[in-house]
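As a warm-up, study this chain.
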Amino acid sequence: MPVVVVESPAKAKTINKYLGPDYIVLASYGHVRDLPPKDGSVDTEHDFAMKWEVAPESKKHVRAIAEALKTDDALILATDPDREGEAISWHLKEALASSLKKGKTVSRVTFNAITKDAVTKAMKEPREVDEPLVHAYLARRALDYLVGFTLSPVLWRKLPGAKSAGRVQSVCLRLIVEREMEIEAFKAREYWSVKAILTTPRGQEFEANLVTLGGAKLQKFDIPTLAAAEMAVHAVTSRQFTVAGVESKPASRNPWPPFMTSTLQQEASRKFGMGAKQCMNAAQRLYEAGYITYMRTDGIDMAPEAVMATRAEIGRRFGDAYVPKSPRMYKNKAKNAQEAHECIRPTDMSADPSKLRVEEDQRRLYDLIWKRTIASQMEAARMERTVVEITSPDGQVGLRANGQVVLFDGFLKVYDQGRDEEEDDEGRLPQIMQGEAVKPAPGALKEAFSKAAARSAGDQEERIASAVLGEGGAVLASQSFTQPPARYTEATLVKRMEELGIGRPSTYASILTTIVDREYVRKDKNRLIPEDKGRLVTAFLSNFFHRYVEYDFTAALEGELDDVSAGERDYKDVLARFWRDFSAAVAETADLRIGEVLDKLDEFLAPHLYPPRADGSDPRICPTCGTGRLHLKTARSGGAFIGCGNYPECRYTRPIAGDAESAASDGRILGQDDQGNEISLRAGRFGPYVQRGEATEAQPKPDRSSLPKGWTPDSLTLERALQLLSLPRQIGAHPEDGEAVETNLGRFGPYVKHGKTYANLADAEEVFSLGMNRAVELLAQKKLRGPGARGAAAQPLKSLGEHPDGGEIQVMPGRYGPYIKWEKVNATLPKDIAPEAVTLEEALALVAEKAGKSPAKKAKKAPAKPAAAKPAAKKAPAKKAPAKKAAAEGVAAPAVKKAAAKKPAVKKAAASEA
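Now compare it with the structure written out below.
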């Protein structure tokens, strides 16, 4: 009976259903081996030899497969059909080498969809493990390890507070930082546009825009001021107009190609706000359930049988008019398209999205994939575009109206792609004939003028358009300003990385997750904004390792890895060339002093750190002493801040984040308290704060209070500042013991206190408004969760059902976030999965992963331990050879060894590409 191995239990369950009792299907739970997170795992002195180690949580899975092979002679590796899947198969083959002797066979099968036909067909077409694909994986893994374990220590030594760097993540981070610098350097430019509402002789209104003024064609910035706008409006209102020409042209729009990984992530972000990781998690579950084809691909072609099925479904649902005469063929334009898969499509085009029994995020994603696939094989949309030219008798003023009529909706009946930027859709025009006179529509734009004027008066800082209304109310000039480039979203960043040839389908989600998790970037309303840590790392790498964060260099290296996967290049040659230059670049930084590094970064980040001041004075002059110059400095605890060069005589500091606002606010007097003390807003190393009076010999430390999260310096009032300085706030005496109950702001946020009991508050505003009843309730809840009341457990947020081995699986609230609980196993819930949205399948996977690390779980799962296991474990420290043998046979390692394995966790993170 052949043993079939796949990555996940969900995939194993589906495939087992198709293959039946003649096969044993087991899961490896992803990769079973990796490079140990310590120096020397890639030996650059000995032809880049790599030392692999079976992960502790994977040993039981390898052992289960080895146990099955004792009675079966065939191992079939059925992992995913890409580089990563090929690598997992290779690792399994190597890890099981001792169990594959005595005539046992190993074969590799791949299928692009988990359907009965695809799986059974693949079983009839076994092959060997693809060595070139494995070599490409080895090269990529070695490169990421060498960059992580070589460059990260340099960062730790030369840039205190920095966490790590990665081969592709650093280039991705550079994109985000450079976009932010473009935004900060952007200077808005004013321009005006003029439109009119006109009527035809038949009384129908339409909109036209001014395109000719003074006999010359208008360019974007030809009306730059209010005075010029008023003259333009007068020129239009003082003339009569006739239709000089009407031109109608047929036009068509072809459908978009089917999805590949990057376009699916982009569209899921646009339409549903899904992050790349959330999108891929949902797609993975759809794939494992057999609903869609493999979801990590840069191919957009579709299997012939799928094309015919799609065309048949279009005809059945929408009629033959929507089926083109011949099938549409799509060719990939992406650089180095090499993943060799189909597009992402449904496995059964007749499967209605509304009838799928899946979680909501999976249903929405399937619906999107189904619509895109159907639309890709539909007829083009046909429309008619009309351009009407309107001129004055003297030819000095001209207007233009554009319109569009959809004659046949075609693929638009099903799907239209989302947009990253706002676009104006052309409306339909009334019947207009050449030579006809058109007139202004009196009062047609009065309402638009009133709205524009109100917005302008109410929000000057955002510079929303002012307006000029012509006599009669039919002509309107609107003020606009050029806009800075938009911050990247995950969708637009993936698109840009794809254009540059950086990264591959399987890496996008992990790269984006890593830079957020390491706090180099934060997400705000789906926009990616670089943190100061990210700016500093990018500045350091751009100055001292410029070549390795160049877009062309990274893309070229990806191309070399593609050549390796195609068997056209030796992977060790790629490693040798890279390491020769990279190790030399690292060596050059050995003698750098931190002061030199800071000077370089100070210069590189100067536009961000020292923006121009409103009064035109030198932005580097210290606002406190007036003579010292501001410089970038590092704190002993790590991190960076701006400080005065006259230290210690002048102790001015401020954070590097929000420096323009902080600099403008620093020292601002808000008013006086009842005793006549000045209340001022200050900028400190850890952010803005308020202070009462000045430091004196009698009172060297005046009252101070930091601004809580969510409070901005520019909106702070004297009343709010006095509230902060009055803390802690006394609510009253506790009804049970009469002891004081108070609220305050602490290191970890707002809280309410009674005796030695502290309870967190959700919002800083509650510090000033919390009443006694609510305070007592919060304190009581905290006591129930405390060590003195163990029996009163927190209530579950959600019950997911029974575990296959028995026992209920629940989602529980925790001090550090929600987690999955099953018996004695507690598995942390990832940040991107909401507690209310977690599924039983996801919970089982998290529990299984955690149980592999849990001593309690191991004890439960191994009731029949061999008696010889204990002596073998005890003898391991004395004799190294038996210890290795014991580990290979699955004997539990000594506790000391397990603790040592956890020690280099930080370095492990540093080594990953993403």
